[in-house]
Fold this protein.
Amino acid sequence: MFTRNCRCAGAHRYLPDWTTTVWRRVHAATYMQIPEVFVARFHALLEPYVLLLDEWDDEIPGPTIVFDDVVAPPLLAMLSTPDEHTATITTMFVMMEEMALHPERDVRSLLSVTLLEHIVNARPMLYEAAIWFTGPATRQELDRLAPRFGITPLPSGMTVIVPPARFPCSAPFDWANDPG
């Protein structure tokens, strides 16, 4: 899925080959493709992703490492100021909901072990900010993890699913009419 690209003077970088990346839907991706899906949707993740790939030389880091080092830090930063990043957070949580409903157990575990544990482990304030963006499956998993980190889950009526932002090249996500 990656091609070596030497556009930078003397620098070898691995960049996703966007023509072969399954990036439109999380549920269509395998466990190893999930990081590519996130990088393709959130171009701000490309630079830290490429830096991580450079650190690994000829190896490709596993999804857990990518999520811990590349995806989680900006998500936590955005949840600290959710009003400034509503569209991006919403899109990310729609993708997280797709991960929570994914048929592969490894993908569901990736969501729990990386992103959701980071949210509940960071601060109760981030948990409270996150629940406003969660879908039902993501909220259930977030509430399951919260007591492990000393957070009392809020009543389920507190969740409000914000209308999702437009994805590149696709219509807004519609929970009720999702064909997949």
In short: The two ends are 24 Å apart (CA to CA).
